[in-house]
Amino acid sequence: MSKLLETNNTAPLEQQLQSMLEQARSACSNNGELSSECAVAWDAVEEMQAASSDRRLHQKTNFDRYCEERPDALECRIYDV
């Protein structure tokens, strides 16, 4: 079962996700769709997908970096109305 959760931490997240998808499909075809190995593999895939989505949501844009460097710039001002 530990083999299912092994991923290369240096590989890009999308590449890890593809590898985990293949492992999950293999676990389900080898052990049956109702097996615990299949469930664990798909849980790991769901966690990786959530992490990937979370990472995309929290990436800073060039505008965010610009505003961090120049908080007094007109473009970066935020007004409460």
Automatic annotation (TrEMBL):
InterPro entries assigned: CP12-like, CP12_dom
Name the UniProt record assigns to this protein: Calvin cycle protein CP12
Annotated ranges, domain CP12: 13-81
UniProt-listed Pfam families: CP12
Lineage: superkingdom: Bacteria
